[in-house]
């Protein structure tokens, strides 16, 4: 039985509608909501985000990302034997976006399910897929992060609606004789539910509670910086590696200040940090595979590089995956 799993292909997809900060600010102004390019760039590093058209779903974004990852891996959809989609904005309450994606890819039979850990979803999903492959329950997994966060944004709340975007990223993770994923470290602490949540839920044919995103930005910021450092250090210790060996840090793309302070705490030069938050905004579970795919296609991340992927988000959830690409 193969001892390891390894990423053999990456892909991503952004919906075509790109809104610069200035364009978003102009739209918000029509609602009497004031913001500016200057404020958003200075506090977050975000310059633009992509929004899906109203009829485009999570699984719609996942399809081209998954197809690009399979093409890069040289794998046909029929060879996939596990599909995991990390998302907090699935097409429906049920079935899972993963089951819908499976059908849209023209395949059937393999297990398909969603993982819901908000912005940590992709590192959770990758860890689950790695464990299933190492246990002999799968050999070729499609692991996707896909989100339409624009659906759950309150465009009257300038403290949150300027931060998020839509998109999808995917990897093919295959059983391997040589090490790909070296170590993972996942956590959750539900006492922080209130600082980042979408409290509404479906009940009796209606939505009860507010179905839009609520966030205490400063509380999230403070927690995020500490836990990202801890998860990175724990993962390095489990794998017997040191931070100097990391070639690329690919954190969840929420805020450039959180990302840079994580890099500094790990004593990593900022040129080892993969940054896409400027162009994508925060795409929640999609942000890490989107950033990974962009870095691969730009020729930054190369085969054999040591990558630290890190997620943090609602729950509170956080975690890291250290891998040889
Ligand atoms: N445009 C203009 N002004 C604004 C905006 C805006 N979009 N949003 C807030 N302000 C104002 C506030 O009203 C406040 O004004 P006041 O001083 O007159 O009251 C002022 O700017 C400062 O607001 P703060 O909330 O103190 O700004 P802060 O520097 O903390 O930045 C931010 C806010 C960007 C949200 C920051 O706290 C942050 O990034 N937190 C982490 C958020 C995050 O990463 N979330 C995602 C992680 S998990 C997940 O992805 C689901």
What structural keywords apply?
single chain, 325 residues, alpha+beta, Peroxisomal Thiolase, Chain A, domain 1, 2 domains, five-stranded mixed beta sheet, four-stranded mixed beta sheet, 10 helices, 15 strands, 26% strand, binds acetyl coenzyme *A
The CATH class of the largest domain is Alpha Beta
Give the biggest beta sheet.
Answer: 5 strands, mixed
Strand order of the largest sheet: 1-7-6-4-5
How do the SSEs run, as a string of H and E? EEHHEHEHEHEHEEEEEEHEHHHEE
Secondary structure tally, helices: 10
C-alpha termini separation: 21 Å
Strand content: 25-35%
According to CATH, the fold-level topology of the largest domain is Peroxisomal Thiolase, Chain A, domain 1
Ligands, ions, cofactors: acetyl coenzyme *A
How many domains, as an integer?
2
The average pLDDT is 97
Low-pLDDT runs of 5+ residues are none
Verbal overview:
The chain folds into two domains: 173 residues, Peroxisomal Thiolase, Chain A, domain 1 (3-Layer(aba) Sandwich); 144 residues, 3-Layer(aba) Sandwich (Peroxisomal Thiolase, Chain A, domain 1). Helix content is 33%, strand content 26%. The protein has ten helices and 15 strands. The strands form five sheets. Strands 1-7-6-4-5 form a five-stranded mixed beta sheet, with helices on both faces. A four-stranded mixed beta sheet has the order 8-15-14-13, sandwiched between helices. Strands 2-3 form a two-stranded antiparallel ribbon. The longest helix has 23 residues. Bound molecules: acetyl coenzyme *A (ACO). The site of acetyl coenzyme *A (ACO) has 25 residues, from helix 2, helix 6, helix 7 and strand 14.
